[in-house]
Write a structure and sequence with these properties.
The protein has 74 residues and is mostly helical. The chain is 53% helix and 0% strand.
């Protein structure tokens, strides 16, 4: 026995098509979309290319200070 494949009803296809045409028409009237809000990164790199253990230790100390400053106090 062969399985029948799903075919959506004609009414559903007509509604989907009309919704797509309406969406295209509305977007053409409005013009191109404006870019959404961006979350700007206001951080500054401590040292983009650390080469010694002392530089890595300095970065770790700065990170720990920031964590202490901004973490919730218990």
């Amino acid at each position: 026995m062969a399985l029948r494949r799903y075919t959506p009803p004609i009414r559903r296809l007509q509604e989907d098509y009309s919704a797509e045409i309406a969406r295209r028409w509305r977007s053409a009237r409005r013009g191109p979309r404006k870019p959404g809000p961006r979350i700007m990164d206001n951080s500054e790199p401590w040292n983009p290319d650390p080469r010694t253990v002392a530089e890595l230790w300095e970065i770790a100390a700065q990170v720990n200070d920031l964590v202490k400053k901004w973490s919730p106090h218990s």
